[in-house]
Write a structure and sequence with these properties.
Elements: E1 7-11, H1 23-27, H2 30-34, H3 40-51, E2 57-61, H4 62-65, H5 69-79, E3 83-87, H6 93-106, E4 111-115, H7 117-121, H8 123-127, E5 134-136, H9 141-152, E6 163-165, H10 197-200, E7 211-213, E8 216-217, E9 234-235, H11 238-250, E10 255-258, H12 267-279, E11 285-291, H13 298-307, E12 309-317, H14 321-327, H15 333-346, E13 349-356, H16 363-376, E14 380-385, H17 393-400, H18 408-414, H19 432-446, H20 449-458, H21 464-478
Parallel strand pairs: 1-2, 1-3, 3-4, 4-5, 7-10, 10-11, 11-12, 12-13, 13-14
Antiparallel strand pairs: 5-6, 8-9
Helix pairs in contact: 3-9, 11-12, 12-13, 13-15, 19-21
């Protein structure tokens, strides 16, 4: 019997082409096209296993490492994995499926376990995909560890909450998720488990090595277009957060990018966090990728800035109160205006997430959104066309109304070899003009003398090259 397993944890990215085809070319925002963030889920799993004496664990970030079929085969011959854990997102399932095909072609006996957001929505369908041996639903640390521990001990079907085996699929009535109660008990993701981490993952705005970090899971708010509210909300305590900041700054990271679904849930906790950063004399800059529009006062924001906060990204979504009610966003337009005004007054950069052509949205509503963008004047905007997919209620309404002739997403997830469905409020109707209008709004916001002058005035010398790259990508994307 082996004394250890060779475990390969993979973020399949866009294997094997590294290109975002169709749906993804139109849907994803500019930031995700020019910046690759580290695979946090696989890094968390690797760190958890490593602390429990699994020492032969490797991480493969297909997109960052540009892994094609030839490189993959060479890698497999060198490492000989016994177990492969794959992170699956529904919109990238075709790439996951292609990767599984390559793995099983190399060795039919390699155990393949699939986890990630996709298994929350389609657990049974994932378990029935050819080549899949097991899946994890929910938090992956304990079930995946139990899988590896059991396989190493010779167990055919290791058992754990959230762990399911394909050969037993008919015996499962439900697919209950695993939920770790405390974020504080999990090990901090160790970036040293990824070769050349600092050179692979740099902040797109200044080309500096940045540690991406998640301090909570789920979201307590109930936006009905997002999967996060279905995930039980848990967050690290302030003491654990400070411990994490000390750890990453000791590794030489000068910037921390928080990728929580909503980082500013508890304003008192955020205040304590900023205060402790200052008291502990920790020197790093930090930013927030997920925040709820809230009436944060100028004195409060000055404290956050003093602690190192440089940028916050908000889910503004729409400038129409009617659309916000439809989306269950639960904030008032006046709150967004005050929030962005206060952030600008303090000198903290902002990013506004915007969605156009939401369910129930009229032309007048869209004009209200454009008006709001120009009023709050964010440092950057991320504008998307509202794309409808399960488990949104609107997806099933489109089927009932005959705007979709059958369950296209079910067809795709049970045989992920074709194009990813791109469904807007028009159902299967052509939506090119909606995306073109999105491009028009982006161009009209960024390419004005006033915006360019303001951005140049705020730029540090070392940021000019990175901003030039962003400008090039904007021209490439929006002047096609």
């Amino acid at each position: 019997m082996k004394d250890d397993l060779n475990v390969l944890l993979v973020d399949p990215g866009f294997f094997p082409t590294h290109e975002r085809e169709g749906f993804l070319t139109k849907y994803v925002d500019l930031d995700s096209q020019i910046q690759t963030k580290p695979p946090l889920g696989t890094l968390a799993l690797a760190s958890f296993l490593n602390e429990r004496d699994f020492n032969k664990v490797r991480i493969m970030d297909v997109e960052a490492e540009k892994i094609d079929s030839n490189k993959l085969q060479n890698y497999l011959r060198d490492f000989h994995p016994d177990v492969v854990g794959l992170t699956a997102y529904t919109y990238r399932l075709k790439n996951v499926f292609a990767f599984i095909h390559e793995l099983k072609g190399w060795n039919p006996l390699v155990h393949i376990c699939v986890g990630g957001p996709h298994t929350l929505i389609y657990p049974k369908e994932t378990l029935q995909l050819e080549g899949v041996d097991s899946i994890v639903v929910g938090d992956g640390e304990l079930p995946f560890f139990r899988l590896c521990e059991g396989l190493l001990a010779g167990e055919s079907f290791p058992e754990a909450q959230g762990l399911f085996h394909s050969s037993k699929v008919r015996s499962y009535q439900t697919f209950g998720r695993n939920t770790e109660k405390s974020m504080d008990m999990l090990p901090l993701p160790n970036p040293n488990l990824i070769n050349n981490f600092k050179s692979k993952y740099k902040n797109v705005l200044n080309n500096k090595a940045t540690m991406t970090f998640v301090s909570s899971k789920g979201c307590p708010y109930q936006c009905n277009f997002c999967i996060a509210p279905s995930i039980p909300y848990r967050a690290m305590g302030v003491e654990r957060l400070i411990e994490a900041m000390k750890y990453y700054t000791s590794l030489g990271f000068k910037e921390i990018d928080f990728y929580d679904d909503t980082f500013n849930v508890n304003l008192k906790k955020l205040e304590d966090f900023a205060t402790l950063i200052i008291e502990e004399n920790l020197s790093f800059r930090w930013s927030v990728r997920g925040a709820k529009v809230r009436n944060m006062s100028v004195p409060f924001l000055k404290l956050l800035k003093k602690s190192g906060l440089i940028r916050m990204q908000f889910g503004v979504e729409s400038g129409s109160s009617k659309v916000l009610r439809i989306l269950n966003k639960n904030y008032k337009i006046e709150e967004a205006i005050m929030c962005f005004d206060n952030l600008r007054a303090v000198g903290i950069d902002t990013i506004a997430n915007i969605m156009l052509f939401c369910p129930g949205e009229t032309h007048e509503d869209t004009m209200e959104t454009v008006k709001l963008i120009n009023r709050i004047r964010p440092s950057f905007i991320s504008v998307q066309v509202f794309v409808i997919f399960p488990p949104m209620k609107w997806y099933y309404e489109l089927i009932k109304e005959g705007k979709i002739h059958r369950d296209l997403w079910y067809d795709y997830v049970t045989n992920p070899t074709g194009e990813v469905p791109t469904l807007t409020i028009r159902g299967e109707g052509n939506a090119d003009d909606l995306f073109e209008y999105r491009n028009k709004i982006v161009k009209e916001y960024y390419f004005t003398p006033k915006y360019i002058t303001n951005r140049l005035a705020k730029m540090r010398f070392g940021e000019i090259k990175a901003h030039a790259k962003i400008g090039f990508m904007l021209v490439k994307n929006y002047f096609r």
